[in-house]
Every structure is written in structure tokens, then in C-alpha cells.
Design goal:
single chain; Rossmann fold; seven-stranded mixed beta sheet; two-stranded antiparallel sheet; 7 helices; 9 strands; about 35% helix; about 25% strand; binds S-adenosyl-L-homocysteine
């Protein structure tokens, strides 16, 4: 009888044991309704979006909004991108486990965390010092393959170049030439291009094996502006 009771209790609490951080259900729903429903299908990307606790990358007061279908403010006039955009940008660079990826615009650290779930090494640069410092602390606690630098990302990260892929999460007026330079042959860069008050386009930049560069506009977007250090 005792054993039977114990067994029933175990059965009762088992589903809850898997709800480790209390947000799994919201996260799974986010992936299903916002991301898969809009056509993202890369398994590694979907798994990463299911794994990373997005609520830990938003300000405490925003936690209950963390899995909503929109960007959220993270302070200093910056935002964490909408979950779908993060997934879309991750899938489009075709991330592989042996890849080295550069991100410009660490912000909350969320996109870097999603990438860190999939690729070998993530190098990420943030221009706003307090944001970079905060993201570095969170990312270092979770991952040993993420490297955060506080600097103007326009110049890329020469010492670790070339990169298999580059993800830029702030809208530049034009594609910074140093970033194209630091992309591997066969590599992909995703970058929003356009001025802050006009329509911006998410552009896919491909460096082909023969060194040829092609660009393709994928969709209209709205990102915070790419800032320059004086
Ligand atoms: N990837 C982030 C999105 C943050 S918004 C996330 O997942 O939360 C874009 C970020 O780019 C902002 O934090 C902004 O400060 C930063 N940024 C803007 N211009 C930059 C530059 N030249 N170099 C590095 N970071 C820059």
C-alpha cells in the first residue's frame, strides 16, 4: 500500500519535475505558434529556442512578458529582438556545431545564448558598456563558449577572424566593410540595413568560395540604430 502511494505521488509530481524553470510551457508554445508557424524549421534552431530561458535575459519587471511575440525594452534605449526574428536570423546563417560566429550588438545576450547552444564559439560585441557587462556576466554563468567584448562592432573582432557567420542586430546605414572582410569564404552574414527613421531591410550577405559577394534583401524590419564610437 505504502509503495503504491509513493508510486502515485511520483506519477503526480513527475510532469512538474520537468518544468524546471516554470516557463517551459510558454517557451514551447512560443516556438510552436510564433516560430514554427511562420516557417522556421531548422531543428537546431528550434531546440535552442526551446532551451534558452528568455525570461532571464529581460529586465526583472519584464519577465512575465518574456515569451510574447514582440521585442522588449532592456534599458539604455535598446531592445531584445522579437523571438521570431532571433530564430529567423539564427536559421538563415545555417549554424553548425563546428562554427565560429560573430555577433554585433550583444544587448541582452539572448541571441548570443541561442547561438552558443548550437555553434562551437560565439564572439559578441556590445557598444553600451553596462549592457555588455551585464550580458557577459549572464552568459559566462551559462556558457564557456561565449566571448563578450565592449567596443564599436564596426571593426569586427580581427584576432578571431575569419568567421563562419556574422549576425548584426543593430541597423546600419551600410554594410561595414571590415565585417565583410572578416567573413569566411562560404560564410553568411545577416544584417539589418537602413536608416533609423526609414524602412530597414534584413539583408543576407554571402561570401562565395571564389570570394564573390552577393546580397539579398529578405524582409522589412525595424531595429535600433547601429551606433558609432566617436
Ligand atoms: N542581440 C541583442 C539585440 C540587442 S539590440 C539581444 O539579443 O538582446 C542591438 C544592440 O546593438 C544594442 O544593445 C546596441 O547597444 C548595440 N549596438 C549598436 N551599435 C553597435 C556597435 N557599433 N557595436 C556594438 N554594438 C552596437
Amino acid at each position: 500500500m505504502k509503495i503504491f502511494c509513493l508510486f502515485s505521488i511520483l506519477l503526480l509530481i513527475m510532469p512538474h519535475l520537468s518544468l524546471a524553470d516554470g516557463f517551459e510551457r510558454e517557451r514551447n508554445q512560443m516556438v510552436r505558434t510564433q516560430i514554427q508557424a511562420r516557417g522556421v524549421s531548422d531543428k537546431a534552431t528550434l531546440d535552442a529556442m526551446r532551451n534558452v530561458p528568455r525570461h532571464l535575459y529581460v529586465p526583472f519587471a519584464q519577465r512575465r512578458n518574456a515569451y510574447q511575440d514582440r521585442p522588449l525594452p532592456i534599458g539604455y534605449g535598446q531592445t531584445i529582438s522579437q523571438p521570431y526574428i532571433v530564430a529567423y536570423m539564427t536559421e538563415i546563417i545555417q549554424p553548425r556545431p563546428d562554427h565560429k560566429v560573430l555577433e554585433i550588438g550583444t544587448g541582452s545576450g539572448y541571441q548570443a545564448a541561442v547561438l552558443a547552444e548550437i555553434v562551437d564559439q560565439v564572439y559578441t560585441i556590445e557598444i553600451v558598456r553596462p549592457l555588455g557587462a551585464q550580458a557577459r556576466e549572464k552568459l559566462n554563468a551559462q556558457y564557456n563558449n561565449v566571448h563578450v567584448k565592449i567596443a564599436d562592432g564596426y571593426h569586427g573582432w580581427e584576432e578571431h577572424a575569419p568567421f563562419d557567420a556574422i549576425v548584426v542586430t543593430a541597423a546600419a546605414e551600410y554594410i561595414p566593410p571590415p565585417l565583410v572582410e572578416q567573413l569566411k569564404a562560404g560564410g553568411r552574414m545577416i544584417i539589418p540595413v537602413g536608416s533609423p527613421f526609414q524602412m530597414q531591410h534584413l539583408m543576407l550577405v554571402e561570401k562565395h568560395e571564389d570570394g564573390r559577394i552577393t546580397t539579398r534583401s529578405l524582409m522589412p524590419v525595424r531595429f535600433v540604430p547601429f551606433e558609432r564610437a566617436d
